[in-house]
Every structure is written in structure tokens, then in C-alpha cells.
Amino acid sequence: MSRPWNLPEREATPEAAALSRRQWLKRAGIIGGGTALTGAGGLAWWLKQAPDEEVLAAGGVANPGVAYPAKRHPKFDELDRPLTEEAAAARYCNFYEFSSGKSVWQVVGPFQITPWKLEVTGLVAKPRTFDMDDLLKFFPLEERLYRHRCVEAWAMAVPWTGLPLAALLRAVEPLPGAKYVRFVSFNKPEEAPRLRNVSLPWPYNEGLTLAEATNELAFLATGMYGHPLLKQHGAPVRLVVPWKYGFKSGKSLEKIELTDKQPATFWNTLAPHEYDFQANVNPDVPHPRWSQKTERMLGTGDVRPTQHFNGYGEWVGGLYS
Ligand SMILES: Nc1nc2c(c(=O)[nH]1)N[C@H]1C(S)=C(S)[C@@H](COP(=O)(O)O)O[C@H]1N2
Ligand SMILES: [Mo]
């Protein structure tokens, strides 16, 4: 079974990209000529080669309409670090339905994000399927600056646009028996061929406790950097739970389901000893194969100490005491 996170980033680059990198280096006389070019710095440098405009255009920004840019929420209007450059985030993504490498932007062309429906169902009094347009009409959008931390130890600082998940859950009226919330991503193999790989537990799915899902920080993002989400970031709607490792934040969601039992999840099913259900960011709990003490910012390569709960203990610490 293939396990992308077992690989160093260098090897996780899609074969085609790795090959063209080699050819480029050869032409430039960098390999074969004796000059070594190794390590993550070398890869970051190579990934920069595609022009920013090409990387952003590949994500197909939808018409922003009247909803964007949204007003920034005053509680989430600053961070301890500069925002990540948009193109740096857009060229380095995890979206396993499309690729096990980071250059997801190169292969999302066939992905159709309109029309799109989001079903909210399960243990609720008023189940409801929202058309994306309705969702934007129903709930006022806001912008929030959040840190994002992948379990692979890269990080970014992002202006998300969207709505508090609690507002959506309130609208469907959870029943007393509801204890967990399950998030299910899209499942269209014609558009994302890796969904045909039957050895993986598709569709991508994740879960939170209801208390986590209704925490003020839990956010349903429809946009990023002041416009609708690019395809590679999980258009048209994705979860953002910034105190947890990035894999908890499912992309391109089709269903949100309230349940009475803890749901099985994608990575926890594949590798339970490496990816637990809770997955809170914690510098003191190493991944079985690497340390979580520090993180590396996309774009700049800055290395920073990892913060417990990714720095959001003030909001969520009480959930776990
Ligand atoms: N459906 C789906 N959602 C997903 C993933 C995925 O492969 N498929 N990857 C996760 C991981 S590991 C991370 S770190 C974030 C990455 O979001 P970004 O690529 O927009 O930065 O998305 C998460 N959501
Ligand atoms: Mo991740």
C-alpha cells in the first residue's frame, strides 16, 4: 500500500516532475558536471521554476461575485508571522485524490467545481442540502488569518474566507444524541484518477467531536487570499481546523454528517499508529519517523518552533483538560 507521508518530500514529488527536474538540471550542467544539488533547498528552488501566474491560473479562480473580499474578523486579523505568499501555497499542496506529490496544481484541470452541493445530514432535526450559491447567501462570509501546520512539518500562514462551522451546524439543529461530526470529500474518479485506487479507503473522510466542531476556531472555508478557493486547495468548500494537523481539514467536501459514534477516518484507517483521530499539533509528540519540534514555512523556508495546539491553546485548551 502506498503511504506518501513515509517518503521524504524529495521522493514524494511526482515521477514526471522528478524526471523533468533531472532533465533541466542536466541541461543546465548541474548534474554530470560535478556540482551537487541536494536536499529540500534544492527542491524548493526547482519548484519555483513554473511562473506564479501559471500555478494560480491552473486552480481556476471562479468569479468572486459580491462575497469577496470579505471583512476580516477583528479577532483573527493578525498573526505572529508574515502571510505566506499565495503562489508558494498554491504550488505545494496535499490533495491525494489527484497526486501523491505536491504539484497538484498541474493535474486539477479536469476537476469540475460547479455546480456543487454540500449535504448536511445525520443526527440533526433539519437535514439540508446546500447548493454552493445558497450557502454563500445564507451565511455572511468573513476573513480570518490562521496558521496551518501539516503533519509533515511544513507550515503556512493563510487568509481564509468562509463561515464558522458552528453557524452551519446550528442551522441544521443537532439532536441530543449527536457526538461526532464526519466530513466526506468528493468522489469522482473521472476527474481525479487516484480515486480508482481501491487499496485506499476513499472517499477521503475525517472527523471531529461535536465540541471541537462547534469551537469558535473551526471554519468552513470557501475562499483564500480574498477570492474563491483554487481547485488545488479544496474548492469549492473545505474544512479548516488550525489547532490540528492539516490532514484533519478535508477538502472539496460533499457531506457533513452528525453521528453518535467516532467515525473511521482516512489516515487513521491507513496508518493508525502514525495518524491518530485527535491529531492536535504537539511539538512534544514526535511522529514515529520524524520530530515535530520545528516547522518550515512554505515560500521562505523559515524554520520556527512548533507551538502546542499550533498556538491556539487559548481557544481549544479547555476541550482537552
Ligand atoms: N480530500 C482531501 N483533503 C485533504 C487532503 C487530501 O489529500 N484530500 N490532504 C490534507 C492535508 S495532509 C493537508 S496538510 C491539507 C493541505 O491543504 P493545502 O494543500 O490547501 O495546503 O489538506 C488536507 N485535506
Ligand atoms: Mo498534511
Tell me what you see in this structure.
The structure is a single chain. This protein has 321 residues and is α+β, with helices and mostly antiparallel strands. It has one domain (9-319): Alpha-Beta Complex (Sulfite Oxidase, Chain A, domain 2). The protein has ten helices and twelve strands. It has helices at residues 9-12, 15-27, 39-47, 52-58, 86-90, 132-138, 165-172, 210-213, 266-270, 313-316; strands spanning 117-122, 128-131, 142-149, 154-164, 180-185, 205-209, 219-224, 227-228, 238-240, 253-259, 294-297, 303-305. The strands form two sheets. Strands 3, 4, 7, 8, 9, 11 and 12 form a seven-stranded mixed β-sheet that branches. Strands 2-1-10-5-6 form a five-stranded mixed β-sheet. Mean pLDDT is 88; it is low at 1-40. Bound molecules: ligand MTE and molybdenum atom. The site of molybdenum atom (MO) has 6 residues, from loops.
Structural class: alpha+beta
Helical segment count? 10
Tell me the overall shape.
globular
Q: Which quaternary structure do these chains form?
A: single chain
Sheet-strand content, in percent, reads 15-25%
- Mean pLDDT, nearest integer? 88
Question: What is the CATH homology-level superfamily?
Answer: Oxidoreductase, molybdopterin-binding domain
Bound molecules: ligand MTE, molybdenum atom
Low-confidence stretches: 1-40
